[in-house]
Amino acid sequence: MILHLTTILVFQLIGETLTRSLGWVVPGPVLGMALLLVFFMAVPRVAKAMQPTAQGLLSHLSLLFVPAGVGIVGHLDRMGTDGPAIFLALLISTALSIAVGALVFSSIARWMGAEE
User: Fold this and answer.
1) Of 96, 17, 87, 6, nearest to 53 (Cα)?
2) Beta strands in the chain (DSSP E)
3) I need a labelling partner for 62 at 20 to 30 A (CA). Which of 47, 56, 113, 116 fits?
């Protein structure tokens, strides 16, 4: 398990290093994840071996939301003054994200020749 976690972190480090040194706008962890996917496709047995570790990480993914909750509680007084603006920004950004995702999905489906 330690080796698998190290592998994930090494690919994240590679992604961070590439994006910072080349000045790319794509986030380092995203590039690292793409490189890890390419590595998994090149060496499928590694992907199969890392599957239990990945499932363990995914099962505890909700722990990553704890810092956001603590931040909200820590700045609860600002929710009274800035709360409506924050809520509106979240509402609009969520709606836009869903709309853009649907448009991209339908465009790719049409491009790939999927039937309606």
Assistant:
1) 6
2) none
3) 47
